[in-house]
Amino acid sequence: MEPLSVMMFLLPNIWPLFVNAIWQQAIPTAMRPGLFFGVTVDPRFRESELGRAIRRRYSLVVWTATLIAAAILTTAVFAASGVFHGPAALTALVVDRRLQPLPWILQLAVALWAYVRGNRATRPHAMQPSSVIKVDLSAKPAAISPTLVLLVLPIASLAVLAVWTATHWRDLPARFAVHWAFGGPDRWVATTPAHVATWFSFDMIVCLVLALVTLGVLQGSRRIMTAGEAGLRELRFRRRVVSLLIAAEYFSVFPVWAGLLGLPSAAMKLWQLVFPATMLVLLARLLLVGQGGTRGLSVSNTVVGDRTADRHWTWGLLYFNRADPAFLVEKRFGVGYTFNLAHPFAWALLALIAVIPLIGKLL
Questions:
Q1: Which of 70, 73, 63, 40 has its CA nearest to residue 111?
Q2: Quick count: other Cβ atoms within 10 Å of Cβ 154?
Q3: From CA 76, how far away is CA 80, in angstroms rounded?
Q4: What is the per-residue pLDDT across 79-118, written as a single tens digit (0 to 9) for each?
């Protein structure tokens, strides 16, 4: 590799490790005050001496794993570039596309282990959440029509592109790009009906999943606080989650258009810059307001949490409650929503999500 090629490969693979580490470190302080590492606790526990110690140990492990993963990746890149002779297993992290995600997997696996340790250390201090359910009878149902139009437009654009592709088949190039590195396209497939149909199916399912999850946030999840300042903050938080999902859906359709219309590499380079930058800004907006919009809200001594019992949560990550009609619930660790695994619609969506990488392998 040339020095420029080394940097072009290294930078796009290094910076996500550090962004993810910042995200993982911020999560414990972004959760609802009555939740700590997936456990319902007294809202004051987070700032207690023990709570701070649990959070420090978690952060130390996350950053240690990040630095190790970054060091491994950097060493592998310089070994592959010929700066020094390295073992084949190390250079394979750069040469073999299938092995390139390993540093990220290492980081995430260690972060998960650190979280489980924090969860176990917090369990002895668990408390029962408030059994009071608040309902705002004056609240109007969320308006679905404008959002529904926004969600349908990307899917409709794919349908329009599919019609155009069918009617202009002879004008299509002999092959089209289905994957782009920052330096340009790095994976091409022949323009055959099977490849084109697979490409459309892949993106259509991605759009469908994002649209269904967005509707689930609006209609298939339960509000925890409905009145007062806390209720207004939670409503704003939900709107920010919806904005992020809608933005992801719109960005996801562009590569299909770019590949089939043969747009110049500059268009995809711009997409590769704007897409992650937009997602980072929208995720940062969620972190700044905290889960449910609770960051900066005055802490009550009442143990509220998310008004679900700890017994329905595994490690504070997986929620299973047949008595809960909601198929999406607020995460107990992380920002946003997760599935109620006892709801059949959640499994239908998970099946769709599982199909996405399977279709991607066909390209």
A1: 63
A2: 24
A3: 6
A4: 777 666 667 767 777 667 777 788 888 999 999 999 999 9
Count of Cβ atoms closer than 10 Å to residue 165 Cβ: 20
Instruction: Residue 98: count other Cβ atoms within 10 Å of its Cβ.
Output: 7
Cα 82 from Cα 84, distance rounded (Å): 5
CA distances 341 to 40, 220, 282, 338, Å, are 20, 13, 27, 9
Can you read off the two tokens belonging to residue 224? 């925890």
Residues 6+ apart with CB under 8 A from 229: 297
Q: Write out the H or E segment, with its range, that includes residue 337.
A: strand 337-339
Q: So what's the pLDDT on residue 123?
A: 93
Global pTM? 0.84
Q: Please enumerate in sequence order all residues whose Cβ is within 8 A of that of 126, keeping only pairs 6 or more positions apart, or say none.
A: 39, 40, 41, 310
Q: Extract the tokens encoding 281.
A: 């800004």
C-beta of residue 298 within 8 angstroms of C-beta of residue 314: no
Confirm if 259 and 200 have CB atoms less than 8 A apart. no
Residue of 158, 277, 258 whose CA lies nearest to 210: 158
The neighbouring-strand residues paired with 313 are 319
Condensed to tens digits (0 to 9), the pLDDT of residues 109-143 reads 999 999 999 999 999 999 877 655 554 444 455 55
